[in-house]
Design a protein that fits this description.
It is built from two helices and four strands, in the order H-E-E-E-E-H. By secondary structure, the protein is α+β, with helices and mostly antiparallel strands. It has one domain. Strands 1, 2, 3 and 4 form a four-stranded antiparallel beta sheet that branches. The two termini are 28 Å apart.
């Protein structure tokens, strides 16, 4: 999201709001958050040991609490914000 436009950020915020993700911070109760620039990719590993590079991931956005710094991740596929083929990969990862 480094080169993201305000319209892209507004789309992400709307997707979260439409799904009811607008509650206060679970750690401190604050209601002021920041949508961090960029994306986060959680790697899906078949085994708990080691790291496999180039495997499946869950593309996400991250929201930070402006008071305590609590981070919450939100999967783009679940929010309907990935192209269909990428979204299918995220759905398969849930199985």
């Amino acid at each position: 999201m480094q080169d993201s436009t305000q319209a892209q950020k507004d789309k992400l915020i709307k997707a979260l709001t439409d799904r009811g993700a607008n509650l206060p911070c679970p750690r401190c109760g604050n209601t002021d958050f920041t949508l961090l620039d960029g994306y986060f990719n959680q790697m899906i590993q078949e085994e708990p040991k080691g790291i496999v590079l180039g495997g499946r991931t869950i593309p996400s956005i991250v929201i930070a609490c402006n008071r305590c710094g609590f981070l919450s991740q939100h999967a783009l596929g679940i929010l309907g914000l990935l192209p269909k083929e990428e979204s299918n990969t995220a759905e398969e990862a849930k199985k």
